[in-house]
Design goal:
With about 260 residues, the protein is an all-alpha fold. The protein has one domain. The radius of gyration is 19 Å and the shape is globular. The N and C termini lie far apart (about 45 Å).
């Protein structure tokens, strides 16, 4: 994809996602979602934001599953063309930076790990896109793993919207369990397995006689960022495991009622 096409698509996504968020927020206000979150944001905006995130993640997850499980594996997993890798990288670039700005605008999402995750993922996707690098692995990291984010969107809505949580208490609990299982299975078990192959191939490439200095830098940057993102997965996995432990021993029951 040419830079001009990326910019055009990015502008359209930014405008479209923002307008849809605003329109949905107005609809939810009309439906009676007029309270504020504990952090001070309007619950209608938080719900609308999460629904836009959910719609984008559903698309990326479907494309990722279709590509990872049903497309022929390229002989060269670092530089071979693998659909829908290029478009998923494009979508990740614009989605992650839009999400970064959205998080900065809402207090409850303005955390160092969220901002770091969106910034690193968006930047890495950009460099992989312009160098036609790791289509194969991007289908997993930028597509299939988004499955774990689907129940998380509902959990976030319930966490931040007292009105929504009151209307759908059972949905809240179901999505909590689904998110915990999906995150640990996909991001704490499958993720490092795929990472291992990516790391081995990348190290082999970096230790070979690489003549393209820019490609060498991108590959090294990608490997470094992947290690950092892997650390974030285990950091979040530890937090999830800690919450599961509290629930199992009875310590999280009261907290969940007041959340």
């Amino acid at each position: 994809m040419e830079i001009e096409d990326l910019i055009r698509f990015g502008v359209l996504y930014f405008i479209g996602a923002t307008l849809v968020t605003a329109a949905l927020a107005k609809v939810f206000v009309g439906m009676g979602f007029k309270e504020n979150t504990k952090a001070g944001s309007a619950e209608s905006i938080v719900i609308a934001y999460n629904l836009v995130v959910l719609m984008t993640n559903i698309y990326m997850a479907i494309e990722g599953v279709n590509g990872w499980w049903f497309s022929p594996v390229p002989a060269d997993k670092l530089f071979g063309e693998f659909q829908p890798g290029p478009f998923l990288k494009t979508l990740q670039v614009v989605y992650q930076f839009w999400n970064c700005f959205a998080c900065l605008a809402m207090t409850q999402y303005r955390t160092w790990d969220a901002i770091l995750h969106h910034t690193l993922t968006g930047t890495l996707s950009y460099f992989f896109l312009v160098t036609n690098h790791v289509d194969y692995f991007c289908v997993f990291f930028g597509g299939l793993v988004e499955i774990s984010n689907l129940p998380l969107c509902i959990v976030d809505i319930c966490k931040n919207s007292p009105t929504f949580r009151q209307y759908f208490p059972t949905l809240n609990q179901i999505c909590r369990y689904l998110f915990a299982v999906a995150f640990i299975l996909i991001r704490n078990i499958c993720w490092p397995i795929v990472c291992y192959e990516y790391w081995v191939l990348s190290i082999e490439y970096l230790t070979s006689k690489v003549t393209d200095d820019f490609m060498f830098s991108v590959s090294l940057f990608g490997l470094t960022v992947n290690v950092a993102l892997t650390g974030l997965q285990f950091f979040w996995g530890y937090k999830i495991a800690s919450m599961i432990k509290k629930v199992l021993v009875g310590g999280g029951k009261a907290k969940n009622k007041s959340a």
